[in-house]
Design goal:
Blueprint: H1 4-18, E1 29-37, E2 44-51, E3 65-69, H2 70-79, H3 88-93, E4 97-102, H4 109-114, E5 119-123, H5 126-132, H6 137-145, E6 149-152, H7 159-171, E7 177-180, E8 184-189, H8 192-213, H9 231-249, E9 256-260, H10 263-269, H11 274-280, H12 285-291, E10 296-297, H13 306-331, E11 346-349, E12 353-358, H14 361-384, H15 392-399, H16 402-410, E13 421-425, H17 430-441, E14 445-450, H18 453-463, E15 469-473, H19 479-493, E16 498-501, H20 516-544, E17 548-553, H21 566-586, E18 591-598, H22 606-620, H23 627-633, H24 643-654, E19 665-668
Parallel strand pairs: 6-7, 10-11, 13-14, 13-16, 14-15, 16-17, 17-18, 18-19
Antiparallel strand pairs: 1-2, 1-5, 2-3, 3-4, 5-8, 7-8, 9-12, 11-12
The protein binds nicotinamide-adenine-dinucleotide.
Keywords: Oxidoreductase
GO molecular function: oxidoreductase activity
Family: Belongs to the short-chain dehydrogenases/reductases (SDR) family.
């Protein structure tokens, strides 16, 4: 049962975390101390509930709390070996856990346990970090808060910082909290209400101080030619650049992209101080762990052409990698973890916006959010003083901290398609929907492209948030619509890696009844549609230089000569030959092109529901409801084929085991000898 203390702690954490002005995503931690009955002794035991490692205050639940015995935590002070060996104390926290201990204790546990107050909040508000990173932050803290809030110079989070804050609280009984140089704020209180009120007082007072005392244009004037482009031009340019930038940012390992063109970003990109401030990098450890020590900034005006920007990007990217390697070499010691990759996580393009990258969409989006936090911090610091982030050597110590490395090593092996972006046409129904679901389940980001936006969005929503899937309206017969779908993929996830030509429909008629319109429609959607989609896919994939996969959901009918099917089967044969032709043409770019020949997928298929089932049933002389079973009986395996079986084949082709296979067709028909490939 949740105790009152825990319930109040969770409610306070959720309230504080819900407002981005109070702390960045997943940043900061909160705690409460209280007494419970120890089930072992039946006597009282003093406990600390503190947000554990990872997780976000806004959505914190009881399972996200670590629970420690205070007596044992205080006991650590006596065995603390000094700041040089403070990291050893993290392992020692495990010996202080109460019961099963809940979530893993974070590095900030000491601060919460050692400060003599029943409730403690440690937060990363933009306004607080602005003071914390102002060159004369100590004097400004005094000016802003008098003796109510105490300045503590930068120190890497850990046991010593906990001792420092505890000592400051003891020495300043009038203080409600402190500004942690280069980092954030900590507040304390005797009750949950008092602690929360004090946190908010520090944050809001700092905001007001910056607003009233600060300069009007902290980033300097808008530079001629660097103003934001109008939205439609901005998005068109961003879509053209995204795959190129994603490709560069994925030089070491595949990354997913996120694009932001909020006013805060566009304003920063237009200002005089963009280059010098960006070069100083971010300061709060949370920020630069996700954003890398500094972003890559394109030094061309908004009016530069896509070609000019692409050419400049490859030079800047090479320089960025060299500088990152030099940064590593400057600070690495023999026991430092190996370099983790030298590509930028944040790329800023004046007039256009910010591209942020991560191993998955959530990480990419949060990196972008953190850079927005960093912009706010720089603006605040520059408004009242000069932005002075922590020293580069300290950033390195945190980025390549053994504890950080251990955290990364503990992360589970990613699923097969993590980091890959899929676009599936006709994915609002049937086979396409099953493929999209399978790809999403394997970790891919998915773009559901279909005729009807509402249906596409609904199918995307079934797969999860917009970090997992987005819907776009696209008629594959329309070149402009197809391009718009790929542009949407570029803006949503940075580009595409897996493209599935699945959109389709069926008309089954004898030759004499097949109209020109029937023929044209089937050839438009199946043959021309997949040609247009593959053409766009190849354009984006070659720009990315990350290889890729194109799949065709062709049909058994592409090889099988059945009755009353001339238009559909001929169009399917066209698709099947596109597989071979494009496999031959695109291999040099690392793009594999393969096909799947399903048959008799009745359940879940809109094609069968929409009249095709009735007409096939009539052709074979069986009742429509028995068509699935009929198809099963005429197969070698006597099994009914479902959309999931086709999705399994699609995953098998792209999941990483068939890296040396292209130009292949995989039958998913439960065995139809007449459609065997030879
Ligand atoms: P379905 O009707 O359930 O799904 C097809 C989807 O494609 C629909 O959501 C539809 O809106 C979309 N679509 C149609 N025209 C489009 C266009 N011009 N642009 C964009 N989207 C469009 O059908 P399904 O059975 O899942 O079929 C999917 C694919 O599998 C088709 O290419 C079909 O020919 C092929 N196939 C199906 C079977 C089968 O037995 N169901 C067998 C072999 C091949």
């Amino acid at each position: 049962m949740t105790s009152e203390t825990v319930a109040a702690l969770l409610a306070r954490s959720n309230r504080l975390g819900a407002d981005p002005r109070n702390t960045n995503y997943a940043g900061g931690n909160t705690s409460a101390k209280g007494t419970e009955i120890d089930p072992v002794t039946g006597g009282p035991v003093e406990l600390l509930w503190v947000k554990g490692s990872g997780g976000d205050l806004g959505t914190l639940k009881e399972s996200g709390l670590a629970v420690l015995r205070l007596d044992r935590l205080h006991g650590l002070v006596d065995v603390y070996p000094g700041v040089e060996r403070e990291d050893e104390m993290v392992a020692a926290f495990d010996y202080c856990l109460h019961g099963r201990g809940g979530a893993a204790p974070s590095i900030d546990t000491a601060m919460h346990g050692l400060v003599d107050a029943a409730h403690v909040d440690h937060l990363h508000p933009d306004s607080g970090i602005a003071l914390a990173t102002a060159a004369d932050g100590e004097a400004l803290t005094k000016e802003c808060f008098g003796d109510k809030v105490v300045w503590i110079p930068w120190r890497r989070p850990g046991f010593q910082l906990g001792l420092d804050i505890a000592a400051v609280k003891e020495a300043h009984p009038q203080a409600i909290g402190c500004i942690l140089g280069g980092h954030g704020i900590t507040a304390w209180g005797a009750t949950a209400e008092e602690c929360e009120a004090r946190s908010l007082e520090i944050i809001r007072t700092a905001e007001k101080f910056i607003a009233t005392r600060g300069a009007a244009e902290p980033f300097g004037a808008v530079v001629d030619g660097f103003s934001p482009l109008p939205e439609n031009q901005r998005h068109a340019k961003a879509a053209a650049l995204a795959p190129v930038i994603r490709g560069l940012a994925s030089t070491d390992k595949p990354q997913v992209g996120h694009y932001t063109d909020s006013d805060v970003v566009l304003d920063f990109l237009s200002r005089e101080k963009l280059a010098p401030l960006a070069a100083l990098g971010t300061s709060c450890p949370d920020h630069f762990l996700r954003t890398k020590v500094r972003p890559l900034v394109v030094d061309l005006p908004s009016t530069a052409s896509v070609e000019e920007i692409v050419a400049r990007l490859s030079e800047l990217h090479a320089e960025y990698r060299e500088e990152y390697q030099a940064y590593y070499d400057r600070h690495a010691t023999p026991d430092s973890p190996a370099l983790r990759g030298a590509d930028p996580a944040i790329v800023l393009v004046p007039g256009v916006g910010m591209f942020s990258f991560g191993a998955n969409k959530q990480t990419a989006r949060v990196a972008g959010e953190f850079y927005v936090n960093a912009i706010n911090v720089m603006r605040g610091a520059e408004a009242i003083s000069t932005y002075a982030p922590i020293a580069e050597s300290e950033k390195f110590r945190i980025e390549y901290w053994a504890l950080e490395e251990a955290k990364l090593q503990r992360m589970p092996k990613p699923k097969a398609l993590v980091g890959r972006v899929a676009l599936v046409t006709g994915a609002a129904s049937g086979i396409g929907k099953a493929i999209a679901a399978r790809f999403a389940a394997e970790g891919a980001c998915v773009v559901i492209a279909d005729l009807d936006l509402e249906k596409a969005n609904a199918a995307a929503a079934e797969l999860g948030s917009s970090d997992v899937a987005v819907g776009v309206a696209a008629n594959v017969t329309d070149a402009a619509g197809v391009k718009a779908a790929f542009d949407a993929a570029a803006l949503a996830f940075g580009g595409v890696d897996l493209v599935v030509n699945n959109a389709g429909l069926s008309i089954s008629k004898p030759l004499a009844d097949t109209t020109e319109a029937d023929w044209d429609l089937l050839h438009d959607v199946l043959a021309k549609g997949s040609f247009l989609v593959s053409k766009e896919a190849a354009r984006v994939m070659t720009a990315q230089k990350m290889g890729g996969d194109i799949l065709y959901i062709s049909s058994k009918n592409s090889v099988f000569a059945g009755p009353n099917n001339v238009a559909y089967s001929a169009a399917k044969a066209d698709q099947a030959h596109q597989v071979r032709l494009l496999a031959a043409e695109l291999g040099e770019h690392g793009i594999r092109v393969n096909g799947i020949n399903p048959d008799g997928v009745v359940r879940g298929s809109g094609i069968f529901a929409g009249g095709w089932g009735a007409s096939r049933a009539a052709v074979y002389g069986v009742p429509e409801e028995d068509l699935g079973k009929f198809y099963a009986q005429r197969t070698l395996l006597k099994r009914e084929v479902l959309p999931d079986h086709v999705a399994n084949a699609a995953f098998a082709l792209v999941g990483g085991e068939l890296t040396h296979t292209t130009g292949l067709h995989v039958p998913v028909d439960a065995g139809v000898a007449a459609a065997f490939l030879r």
